[in-house]
Every structure is written in C-alpha cells, then in structure tokens.
Design goal:
The chain is mainly beta and about 210 residues long. It has two helices and ten strands; from the N terminus they run H-E-E-E-E-E-E-H-E-E-E-E. The strands form two sheets. It has an eight-stranded antiparallel β-barrel. It has a two-stranded antiparallel ribbon with strand order 2-3. A hairpin with a 5-residue loop joins strand 5 and strand 6.
C-alpha cells in the first residue's frame, strides 16, 4: 500500500478562490509606480499528457494554482519567480503491459524564474484603458511524483521524475483600480511530459 497523495480538484479550486479573496483587501496598500515589487496569485490549467513505461496517457485539463512575486526594474522590464502546482492529477483506468490495468495519480510542481518585458497599450496607442501586453523568458524546473497502481495484481509503485527547460510566455494585464488582472500562457519542453504549456489567470498587486 502507498500513502494516498491524491487531492480533489474541487478542493484545489476552493482553496485558490479563498486565497484570491484574501488578496483583494491588500490592493489598498498597493502604490502605482515605475519601479517596485509586485505579487500575484491565480488559477492554472494544462493539457496534461505523460508517458509512463512506454504508455501514453492524459488527464482532462487538471486545475492547479500559481503564486509569483517580482520586481519592476523599469516601466517595461521586470524579473520574477513563480511556483505552481497541479495536485491530484488522475489518469483513470488505462491499459498497462500484458493483461494488467493501471491507475496513475500524480502531483506536478514547478518553479520558474523569468524576465518580463511589457509595453502599455495606453502609452503606445493612446488607449484610455490601461492594458499591458508582455512576453517572458526564463528557466523552469519541475518535479512530478506518481503513484502507479496495478489493479489486477494489487501492487503499487511510487515514481519521481524531474526536469528543467527554457520557458517562454506571452500575456496581458488589465488594471482595475489598484489591482491588475493578468492572463498568460507559458511553454517549456519538459520531457517526459508531453504537455509543455500552461495557462494562468491571476490577480496581481503592485506595491
């Protein structure tokens, strides 16, 4: 028997929404400026597909979360670090080797350090609404812990895999009062993961 690491996606969703609610009052402390620190928290999803023992399986877009913090060096350039987690990824019952059937659950974690280059469309095009588009480039390191259960034989195996890769992303943010609503997508070639991108919607506070 192995320790059950699976977590329900609904629990992850509830925890993330609760944390977003706690972030909102902190917006009153944020000051707008050219340089300074910022932080954000949001929900993430990925088209998860993985290869285990020559078997390719997927999961239906697991829900996770991402927290990040950074520092604006100028009105266009910033550096930041992010941590994200996709807990309780489930494969469902899949065909294994021979006549056996497998059930695979996993927790995926990643840390990314990135640079961010953005431009304000209000400044560039004279728009009244403050929308910024940006691109990111950085380094991602991931850790995947799997619980593999062989259903017919009743045996279980724990597997841990890690990887590192260049991460590239694009996104946009929209200022609402003292908060920024940020959406972006980022890709990283992390074998043996076959899904190499994720999408995040976050609430950001600039101090």
């Amino acid at each position: 028997m192995t320790r059950d690491r699976r977590r329900a996606p609904a629990a992850a969703r509830s925890a993330t929404l609760a944390l977003l609610g706690l972030l909102a009052p902190l917006g009153a402390l944020a000051e707008r400026g050219t340089t300074g620190p910022y932080a954000g928290l949001g929900v993430a999803t990925t088209p998860y597909e993985h290869r285990y023992g020559g078997i390719v399986y997927d999961a239906s877009r697991p829900l996770g979360w991402q927290a990040y913090a950074g520092y604006r060096l100028s009105d266009r350039l910033a550096v930041e670090a992010a941590y994200q987690r996709f807990p309780g990824i489930e494969s469902g019952e899949i065909a294994g080797s021979g006549l056996d059937r497998l059930s695979i659950s996993g927790d995926l974690e990643a840390i990314t350090v990135r640079g961010r280059l953005g431009v304000s469309l209000a400044e560039l095009l004279g728009w009244r609404r403050e929308i910024e588009v940006f691109a990111t480039a950085g380094y991602r390191r991931s850790d995947l812990d799997l619980d593999v259960a062989e259903l017919r034989s009743g045996t279980a195996t724990k597997v841990s895999e890690d990887g590192a890769a260049l991460a590239l992303g694009v996104g946009a943010s929209y200022r609402i009062g003292r908060l920024h609503l940020r959406g972006f997508a980022e890709c990283a070639d992390l074998e043996p993961l076959r899904s190499d991108w994720d999408a995040v919607i976050a609430v950001e506070i600039r101090f």
